[in-house]
């Protein structure tokens, strides 16, 4: 009798300075983002065309994210499994003093080859710890496109829906989806 195959636990690394995001890191981030968007993920940057996208179209957005990293304001969390990038997210502090105690989670994504293996929940739990203990945040917020089932994933992770913008997101003509606004107290 053989033992059942066990999925490895994601290892989470944190980048907090632009020089931490080497050319190799930027390449794997771009490749992951491209695969996620083209598989129907809801993480298309504002200045990119609608899917399908190319890595060349996403490189400028990855560059902006990595250039903006700072320990006080913006951190990139990377999940790896067996040495391969399995997913990532961006954790940012709100810049305005009235909401500087709040953070925003952006670009949450799990590479299509690692879905269903606990990568997303590992990233979210780590973001909560980093937000509270290292950045000093009291609350996180994020936006989710309806119709993809992600709102249920976030609810199970402790997030609460605090509002909706009906029909705010459109991936294709006639495809008006709600943007679901979610919040999590830390």
Explained architecture:
By secondary structure, the protein is of the alpha+beta class. The protein has a single domain, classed as 3-Layer(aba) Sandwich (Aminopeptidase), CATH 3.40.630. Helices cover 28% and strands 32% of the residues. The chain has 4 helices and 7 strands, in the order E-H-H-E-E-E-H-E-H-E-E. A 7-stranded mixed β-sheet has the order 1-2-3-4-5-7-6, with helices on both faces. Strand 2 and strand 3 form a beta hairpin. Helix 1 packs across helix 2. The N and C termini lie far apart (45 Å). The model has no long low-confidence stretch (mean pLDDT 93). It comes from Streptomyces cathayae. One of its GO terms (molecular function) is acyltransferase activity. Pfam families: Acetyltransf_1. Keywords: Acyltransferase, Transferase.
Layout of secondary structure:
Elements: E1 11-15, H1 23-38, H2 55-67, E2 74-81, E3 84-93, E4 102-110, H3 119-134, E5 139-145, H4 150-156, E6 160-170, E7 176-185
Largest sheet: 7 strands, mixed
Approximate helicity band: 25-40%
Quaternary structure annotation: single chain
| CATH fold name | Aminopeptidase
Please name the CATH architecture. 3-Layer(aba) Sandwich
CATH H level, superfamily name: Gcn5-related N-acetyltransferase (GNAT)
Order of helices and strands: EHHEEEHEHEE
Structural Rg: 16 Å
The chain-level structural class is: alpha+beta
Helix count, per DSSP?
Answer: 4
End-to-end Cα distance, whole Å, is 45 Å
Q: Assign an overall shape.
A: globular
**Name of the CATH class:** Alpha Beta
Tell me the domain tally.
1
**Main sheet: strand order:** 1-2-3-4-5-7-6
The stretches of 5 or more residues where confidence is low (pLDDT under 50) are none
Strand content: 25-35%
EC number: 2.3.1.-
Pfam families: Acetyltransf_1
GO molecular function: acyltransferase activity
Keywords: Acyltransferase, Transferase
């Amino acid at each position: 009798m053989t033992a059942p195959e066990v999925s490895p636990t994601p290892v989470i690394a944190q980048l907090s300075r632009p020089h931490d995001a080497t050319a190799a890191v930027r390449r794997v981030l771009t490749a992951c983002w491209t695969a996620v968007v083209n598989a129907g993920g809801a993480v298309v940057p504002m200045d990119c065309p609608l899917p399908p996208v190319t890595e060349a179209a996403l490189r400028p957005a990855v560059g902006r994210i990595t250039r903006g990293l700072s320990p006080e304001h913006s951190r990139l969390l990377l999940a790896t499994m067996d040495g391969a990038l399995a997913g990532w997210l961006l954790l940012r502090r709100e810049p305005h003093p009235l909401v500087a105690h709040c953070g925003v989670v952006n670009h949450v994504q799990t590479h299509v080859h690692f879905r269903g293996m606990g990568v997303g929940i590992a990233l979210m739990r780590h973001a909560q710890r980093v937000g509270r203990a290292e950045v000093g945040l009291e609350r996180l917020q994020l936006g989710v496109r309806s119709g993809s089932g992600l709102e249920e994933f976030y609810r199970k992770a402790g997030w609460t829906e605090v509002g909706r913008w009906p029909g705010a997101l459109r991936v294709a003509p006639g495809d008006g989806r709600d943007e679901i606004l979610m919040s999590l107290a830390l």
